[in-house]
Amino acid sequence: MSGGGLGCVIVAVDGGEESMNALRWALKNLKLRSTPPEGSLVILHVQSPPSISAGLSPGAIPFGGPSDVEVPAFTAAIVAHQRRITDAIIAHALQICSDTNVNFERKVVVGDPKEKVCEVVEELHADLLVMGSRTFGPIKRMFLGSVSNYCTNHVQCPVIIVKDTN
After folding, report:
1. What is the pLDDT of residues 104-132, one digit of tens each?
2. For the chain, what percent of residues have pLDDT higher than 90?
3. Quick one: which of 142, 82, 136 has its CA closest to 108?
4. In 3D, which of 93, 85, 119, 109 has the Cα closest to residue 22?
5. DSSP of 64-77, one letter per residue?
């Protein structure tokens, strides 16, 4: 963190307003390094694998055949739908960044959000991870887990969790 600012800040966005608020907070409050190598803000979105996003595995759909048969058209439709959702999420994030002079890049990966966020933080040697908090209740958090809690305990850089102010 030389040069009076941060080198690499990752902001994880998932389409929820909480993550977009975290992006707004990062843009307003963080100072990136301005001397070479310049700092950058990475907008990270983790897209769920097709079978997870559909809530079921295409192979489990009863077509009268074996349960391990994959239906390519169904899988392709899910992938295309996810791509549209991801494009909308990234477009929203880029619109938030459009009024700033921040050097930013976007990164989309596919997999489990908890693991993928941690992998990207390590891969990019991030100085800071910024995330929104959905504030699940204790029961929902127990079953679904908390991505922000997992990342806080598994990444090597500092983590800022931006809570909803409402």
Report:
1. 899 999 999 999 999 999 999 999 999 99
2. 51
3. 82
4. 93
5. SS-TT---HHHHHH
